[in-house]
């Protein structure tokens, strides 16, 4: 049984003004806490309660925007508590609870020149002004070499446990037991600059920044393929009629590429011929928690076979 | 029928009620920051309630109209002129083809709104005409207006007519110190009780970092309760495991700079959130500017809902009176 720490004792509900209800499953990130949030928000969406306007599952919590003119926020909390008692922790234990999703191959170049240039500009905001973000992450996570740290980062797939910040940004939580999960602090003060498609890490989460902008996560690399496409010029975005590529619940396998591999993808993007490689997955939280490495291996085989 | 932009002002954008249903993939609602001024503007010119209008900040735009129409200027206290002649605020005014709307110096508030009969006709993006400049989507070409732009007018006019006027009692005042009512909560337990008290006792000053994304304030230092950080949150005491952010929520990165997130804000992140400004009072906030003072007043959920109902009733009454 992996990842049972960081469990929870009941959900804490609170009101974010008159329009939002916040439900904190756990203060700490864990897969069981996330699966509980997922099971509840999924049921909430199925029930289509009038007055529920937005359902936002997040890492170890979730948020609902409510129209208080149609549904009293306290009545919403009562509905959520009812669903909690019906669904509860079932997601992590019940083999019949599964998520129909997909595994996605995402090329990534670690220790790339573009994020390196930016991160060097902001050393005064960093915990380790004399090193790089990767060296720092490797050291505080107990890796002997940066290369071994990179192997761990790209060694197992991740689950998209939250979408947002800006349109299309995926928060990715690595599908490994807790003792193998990486954790790094965010910058002491956020940067004013982050390159588009930068691969960052903060807390226990990997992200890809969809667009250029501010950011406070450690900068580890760069993704050559777009994850946000306002004009929907790339085929993946046109076909899905969406400006964002990722969906909550996607499984992402970050595949290491070198600079030549990076350039190759960029050329396909320039020719508007880039396609993400994906494979459908029926993800079972209970099966995963019982056998993380076996589940990951099976998903990867489905993706690359 | 169109509007020619001779001078865009500081940042003038097309806004409507906002973009909803996509928060979970990271789309903030956008939409007019001062919802009252926006809705009254549409009611004055006889538009359908969701018609798109222009929102400016600090400086008004200079706009030429190519055909006869009806406009209304609402929101900030700012002198407005048509071909140099002063026109009243909070009142619908007839405009003849070729006339130019211009603005003088801001006297109070921060954001004037220009409603035009028919509304601004830009394509709907994800269900809204609102501009979201951070990723360049919505509104006019995903950006603020620029000199030389030509805006087309829409067909959202129901009963355009000049001479409609908002009752004086309904015209908002812009006090020297704005009071923003908020529900304390979410991660307020992360702040020491002293600090939470200090938060509502302080007359916070609006910093230059104040825009449609959010407002930053300075005025006091707040402290977090020491704890061993939960796995996943990051090591700073201001960090929590990344979660969704309500619009109007207040964070205090570093303990020194409260930020109120507004309609163009990020939808989630990892800063502890101490509470949320009630939706109605985002209108007041939108009319404050750099250097202004702001106080936060704690209310409970029942009070927040009463404030919301009162505002809805007021808008209903105004719409009936102006119909």
From TrEMBL, chain A:
EC numbers for this chain: 6.3.4.6
Gene3D superfamilies, per database record: 3.30.1360.40, Cyclophilin-like (2.40.100.10)
One Pfam family named in its UniProt record: CT_C_D
Enzyme class name: ligase
SMART domains referenced in this protein's UniProt entry, alphabetically: AHS1
Entry keyword annotation includes ATP-binding: yes
Keyword Lyase carried by entry: no
Alphabetical list of InterPro entries matching this protein: CT_C_D (IPR003833), Cyclophilin-like_dom_sf (IPR029000), PxpB (IPR010016)
Record keywords, A-Z: ATP-binding, Hydrolase, Ligase, Nucleotide-binding
Top-level division of the source organism's lineage: Bacteria
A GO molecular function held by the record: hydrolase activity
Limits of the Carboxyltransferase domain: 11-238
Protein name (database record): Urea carboxylase
Organism: Actinomycetospora corticicola
UniProtKB/TrEMBL annotation, chain B:
One Pfam family of this chain: CT_A_B
Keyword Cell membrane attached: no
UniProt cross-references to SUPFAM superfamilies, sorted A to Z: Cyclophilin-like
Segments forming domain Carboxyltransferase: 24-314
Protein name: Biotin-dependent carboxylase-like uncharacterized protein
Gene3D superfamilies the UniProt entry points to: Cyclophilin-like
Keywords of the record: ATP-binding, Hydrolase, Nucleotide-binding
GO MF assignments: ATP binding; hydrolase activity
């Amino acid at each position: 049984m992996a990842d049972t720490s960081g469990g929870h004792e009941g959900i804490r509900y609170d009101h974010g003004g008159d329009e939002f209800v916040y439900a904190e499953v756990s203060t700490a990130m864990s897969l069981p806490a996330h699966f509980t949030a997922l099971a509840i928000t999924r049921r909430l969406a199925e029930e289509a309660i009038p007055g529920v306007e937005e359902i936002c599952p997040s890492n170890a919590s979730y948020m609902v925007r409510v129209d208080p003119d149609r549904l009293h926020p306290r009545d919403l909390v009562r509905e959520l508590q009812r669903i909690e008692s019906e669904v509860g922790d079932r997601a992590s234990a019940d083999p019949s609870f599964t998520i129909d999703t997909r595994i996605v191959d995402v090329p990534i170049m670690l220790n790339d020149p573009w994020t390196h240039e930016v991160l060097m500009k902001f050393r005064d905001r960093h915990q380790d002004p004399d090193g790089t973000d990767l060296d720092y992450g490797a050291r505080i996570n107990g890796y002997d070499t940066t290369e071994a740290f990179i192997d761990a980062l790209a060694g197992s797939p991740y689950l998209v446990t939250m979408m947002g910040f800006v349109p299309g940004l995926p928060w990715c939580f690595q599908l490994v037991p807790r003792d193998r999960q990486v954790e790094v602090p965010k910058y002491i003060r956020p940067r004013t600059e982050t390159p588009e498609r930068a691969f960052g890490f903060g807390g226990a989460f990997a992200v890809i920044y969809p667009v250029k902008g501010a950011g406070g996560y450690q900068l580890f690399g760069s993704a050559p393929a777009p994850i946000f496409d306002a004009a929907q010029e790339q085929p993946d975005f046109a076909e899905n009629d969406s400006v964002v590529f990722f969906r909550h619940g996607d499984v992402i396998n970050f595949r290491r590429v070198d600079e030549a591999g990076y350039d190759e993808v960029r050329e396909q993007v320039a020719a508007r011929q880039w396609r993400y490689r994906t494979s459908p997955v029926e993800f079972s939280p209970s099966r995963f928690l019982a056998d993380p490495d076996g589940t990951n291996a099976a998903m990867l085989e489905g993706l690359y076979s | 029928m169109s509007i020619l932009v001779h001078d865009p002002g500081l940042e003038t954008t097309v806004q409507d009620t906002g973009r909803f249903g996509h928060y979970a993939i990271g789309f903030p609602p956008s939409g007019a920051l001062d919802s009252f001024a926006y809705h009254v503007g549409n009611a004055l010119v006889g538009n359908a309630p969701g018609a798109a209008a222009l929102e400016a900040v600090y400086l008004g735009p200079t706009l030429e109209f190519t055909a006869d129409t009806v406009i209304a200027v609402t929101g900030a206290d700012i002198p407005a002129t048509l071909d140099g002649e002063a026109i009243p605020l909070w009142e619908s005014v007839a405009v003849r083809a070729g006339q130019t709307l211009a603005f003088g110096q801001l006297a109070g508030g921060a954001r004037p709104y220009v409603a035009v009969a028919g509304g601004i006709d830009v394509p709907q993006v994800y269900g809204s005409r609102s501009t979201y400049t951070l990723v360049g989507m919505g509104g006019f070409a995903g950006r603020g207006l620029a000199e030389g732009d030509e805006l087309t007018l829409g067909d959202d006019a129901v009963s355009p007519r000049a001479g409609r006027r908002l009752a004086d009692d309904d015209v908002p005042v812009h006090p020297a110190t704005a009071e923003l009512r908020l529900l304390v909560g979410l991660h307020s337990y992360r702040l020491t009780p002293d600090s939470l008290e200090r938060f509502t006792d302080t007359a916070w000053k609006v910093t230059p970092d104040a825009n449609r994304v959010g407002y930053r304030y300075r005025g006091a230092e707040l402290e977090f309760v020491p704890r061993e950080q939960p796995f996943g949150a990051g090591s700073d005491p201001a960090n929590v495991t990344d979660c969704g952010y309500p619009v109007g929520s207040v964070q205090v990165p570093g303990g020194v700079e409260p930020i109120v997130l507004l309609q163009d804000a990020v939808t989630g992140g990892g800063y502890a959130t101490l509470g949320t400004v009630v939706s109605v009072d985002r209108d007041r906030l939108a009319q404050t500017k750099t250097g202004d003072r702001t106080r936060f007043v704690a209310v409970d959920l029942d009070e927040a809902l009463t404030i919301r109902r009162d505002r809805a009733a007021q808008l209903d009454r105004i719409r009936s009176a102006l119909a």
